Amino acid sequence: ILRGLERPKDINRTLGAAFKRWINEKFTKDPFRVVKDYKMLPTCSDTKICIYAGPDEKIAEFIKVYLRLKEPVKGFFDRDIIVKVKDTYVIGEARFLSTPGGSQTRDLENTLRFVENMEKIAKNTTKVKVKGIALVDGIVWFHRPYINMITRQAINDKVVMSVLFLEEYLLDLFNKLP
User: Fold this and answer.
1) What is the DSSP code (8-state) at residue 11?
2) Under 8 Å CB-to-CB from 13, ≥6 apart: which residues?
3) Residue 48 confidence (pLDDT)
4) What's this model's pTM, rounded to 2 decimal places?
5) Using CA atoms, how far apart are residues 154 and 147, in angstroms rounded to an integer?
6) CB-based contact 50:83 (threshold 8 Å)
7) What are the pLDDT digits (tens) for 35-80?
């Protein structure tokens, strides 16, 4: 028990802040704009891609209050990033998996389930256009069972990718939307 208590946190448990720092450093050029307050998202110009990567609870608050979406279960909207691309909101969950098995597999399953449920929410709402994406990195792209899990899930409009493709994905979405 003592060894378990004294060991350092798994790397996947410490990278949340690093992801949000990376967003602030990476997305500095046009048409990107990182906003510090989620209340700025609705007023974001259609000529910009506005990104908010603040506290998970603030993202959930924005989704419930401003987008008026009903949370399927408590904590479901506590996510890592929300992006406004013209009239569409992209809600993302970022995961870094360091080893296969155990809690890592559960984290991946939960992240894929989030994308699946966001697709259902998007189909059932006429209020706003929303899309869920999974940003997964680490062992996930080298471990065959994880690749198979993603391949089964990432069909139709479900997006699962490395965070390294986020910029390209958002630019592509920006250029496709009217």
Assistant:
1) G
2) none
3) 96
4) 0.88
5) 10
6) yes
7) 999 999 999 999 999 999 999 999 999 999 999 998 989 999 999 9
For residue 125, what are its two tokens?
């709402």
Torsions phi, psi for 87 (to 5 deg): -105, 15
Residues β-bridged to residue 131: 90
43: exposed, middle or buried (C-beta count within 10 Å: 0-12, 13-18, 19+)? Answer: exposed
* Tokens encoding 67: 């987008």
The DSSP code sequence of 49-107 is EEEE---HHHHHHHHHHTS-PPPSSTTTT--SEEEEETTEEEEEEEEEE-SSSHHHHHH
pLDDT of residue 12: 46
pLDDT for the residue numbered 153: 77
CA 177 to chain centre: 20
d(CA 39, CA 41): 6
Residue 67 near residue 128 (C-beta atoms within 8 A): yes
In the block, tokens 């792209």 appear at 141
Q: Which of 49, 116, 114 is nearest to 87 (CA)?
A: 49
List beta partners, residue 133: 92, 159
**pLDDT over threshold 60, residue 13:** no
